[in-house]
Amino acid sequence: MDLAPDALLRRAAFKKGARPMKIVMAVIKPFKLEEVRDALTALGVHGLTVTEVKGYGRQKGHTEIYRGAEYAVSFLPKLKIEVAVATELVAQVIEAITAAARTGQIGDGKIFVTSLEKAVRIRTGETDVDAL
Question: Does the reported pTM lie above 0.85?
């Protein structure tokens, strides 16, 4: 029986009694950060990482005038939020981020979900979901 490496990892994790985890990454407009944080806190998600990023997508940027000269701003400022959660919370986290970050305008952002193999809290040594 040939199993993909990902399937082997999942099988090994379940044998040890570990619960699967995911990383939810969202790219949002900067002014929506507090609303998204409040929505995640209401779900019981207390840890998140925020990174200032620049992006180019369908919004395509805009032009600005600086000292009388017009120039194009192609990459717009965004925030990338990363949250590690137990797999059973993923749907709720996606719904909370979507509801809090939506303006209905182009450039509201995107959400990506990836598998998380292992997590370790450095201070205590707790692992996986206990470390989140």
Answer: no
